[in-house]
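seq:
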Amino acid sequence: MTLGILQQSLLIMRTVQHTTFKDQLRWHITQEKIQSEMDHALKINEVKDNHISYTKPEWLNNKHPAFVFNIFGKEGNKMLRYKTAVSGGHEPILVNQKEIKIEKISNLVIITTVNKAGEKSEMYLTLDEQKV
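struct:
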């Protein structure tokens, strides 16, 4: 009986480690994508509690050069999405979040999320002061 419990415990531990690793990897990739966008931005137009607005240099001659990472959805089912500032569709970045908050402290942007399981995570993005 003890051996059976030990085997079950090892299987559960392996599953938890695998799931946690996938989630952490996904989180780091998302953070790198957002950081890359901020690094490449010509100008950071605005950072508010529900969005980050910035201008892309390669879109300056287009009708809508500004892009936004913003929070969308109702309480308990929020999404961080990427879209043009004026019109068009969107690309979901983080979905099925219980809470999402964006805050700016000096040259840092902190994106805090709470998932459906109640786990809190924070993303720290650095901004080039000359672009703000």
